[in-house]
Amino acid sequence: MAGQEFQPVAVLDCDPGSAQVYEFGWQSWSPAALYRAESRSARPSSPLAQVMNYRPGCPAPGEGFQGEGLLAVARGGEEPILIFAAEGPDPVPSIRARLLKDRLEVSANGQVRIWPGERGAGMDESLGSWAESFPRAGRAARKSLPSVWCSWYCLGDRVTAASVIRAARSARQRQLPISVFQVDDGWQAATGDWWPDRERFGDLRELARALSADGLELGLWVAPFVAAEDSETVRRHPDWYRTELDAGRNWKGRILVLDLRREAALAHLTGRLQGLAELGVSYFKLDFLYAGALEGPGSGIGPYRMAMASIQRAIGSRARLMACGAPLLPTVGLADAVRVGPDTAPGWEPPGGDLSQPSGRSAQVVSRARAFTHGRWWSNDPDCLLVRPGVERRGLRARQLSELAGLASSGDLPDDLDGWGLARTRRLMRPSATGPSAPPGPMPVTRA
Ligand code: 9PG
Question: Is the pTM of this model over 0.90?
Answer without folding.
Answer: yes
